Amino acid sequence: MALYSDKVMDHFRNPRNVGVLEDANGIGEVGNAKCGDIMKMYLKIEDDIIQDVKFETFGCGSAIASSSMATELIKGKPVSEAMQLTNKAVAEALDGLPAYKMHCSVLAEEAIQKALDDYHSRSENK
Amino acid sequence: MIYADNAATTKMSKTAVDAMMSVITENYGNPSSLYSIGQKAKEILEEARATVADVIGAKPQEILFTSGGSEADNQAILSAAALGRKNGKMHIVSTAFEHHAVLHTLEKLKKEGFEITLLDVHEDGIVRPEELEKALREDTCLVTVMFANNEIGTVQPIREIGEICRKHKVLFHTDAVQAVGHLPIDVEADRIDLLSASAHKFHGPKGVGFLYARKGVRLSNLIEGGAQENGKRAGTENVPGIVAMAAALAEAKENMARNAEILTEKRDRLIQGLGAIPHSALNGDAKRRLPGNVNFCFEGIEGESLLLLLDDKGIEASSGSACTSGSLDPSHVLLAIGRVHDVAHGSLRLSIGEDLRDEDVDYIIRSVSEVVGYLRSFSPIWRDLESGKKPHLL
Hints:
By secondary structure, chain A is α+β, with helices and mostly antiparallel strands. Chain A has a single domain, classed as Sufe protein. Chain: A (Alpha-Beta Complex). Chain A has helices at 6-13, 61-74, 79-82, 87-93, 102-124, and strands at 26-32, 37-46, 49-58. Chain B has a domain at 256-386: Aspartate Aminotransferase, domain 1.
């Protein structure tokens, strides 16, 4: 059996929404280099809808695939829906992750929540 | 496909396969049986023992066949520890970058009351004999230092270490799993008391290896039962594996000098080519390393994704990143030579074989360079390094 599902390999080989959003109004970075995974999410939110999302990731195959899948799951969705995103949903959408790689999906969830927090605190300070 | 993971395992040579087939199909007897095919099996078993002994300058009765390198390491260390305990000597000297077959056995002994000193292997991945000598105590019963490291390939000053141990009357074991069949070894001249080896690292089969124990060094059993292997390792001998190992080893010895020359030339071209990738660094001394070992760290990327993308390009290699080991920490070897976690996660080991073609060398350099560049293009760490937010470490 292969280490990863076809879905994971597809998102790893052809990651969706890779890069930086210069006009992002919500940015979240989680993880640390010591553990070998860092994810950074950029959100462009207008009228409470996630109009655009991009990511940058330093990490293993499942970290890159989890970031990619997480961006797909929230793109075009209302903020309230994105706030409900769980790591389980990310892992399931990838047809599962090996047990010791589940933390990659947790990082993806946390990166998005952190970017949403950043968006909310920016809005409050306006 | 370019197979560049020969330190993990090698393809069996045709000589070894043929030797194994002849045992399986013709000489299938049990060496402990009295009738003809049993005695024939005993005969070829002893021939194999003589062949193996000859390659490392030992006597046949000093060779014990095992299931591989890990078993040999365990038996060597536990035997020396048992002798030490009997004499009230419960201190062992080793290094921080041994194979886990050694380190975990030492951990076990530590729980049983042994004191373990792990020597520094410095930035170049080489043990300093003078530091080893200083670490020896009245109650030191064993020194165990690997011949060549399995990850970064650095070759240790074995003969100097052996001489120091002999002078201080301390047993000397070396895990020579990566060296046997690749480097000249003479257990007499190198003053080695115990040596472990594994067949599948020199084009022999998996699941077989040997332990050399100098005459007079009393071994303890890991496996109790029948009287095979001089009563020191019970269980019907793996005759097909042992015969194939001996054939592979004899062949490796015959071709050793030529292979080393071919591999060294390609290794050095790889080191030069990969070293040209910005913010990369070779791990371990550039010259005192196995002829086929290349090990690099690349800043800003993680090893597993590098391996997966290289696999897509038909290159099979390995990494010391945490994600390839199933743990959270990167390779203990890279940490031992002073690489920080951030950098150690981005490592690549290429262990090349004799069949690597000249054009493969260029293809590997080009492919690694491309993949590293691609992964850096969306690495937040790399962005921070390039923007000056964090300083480059390599």
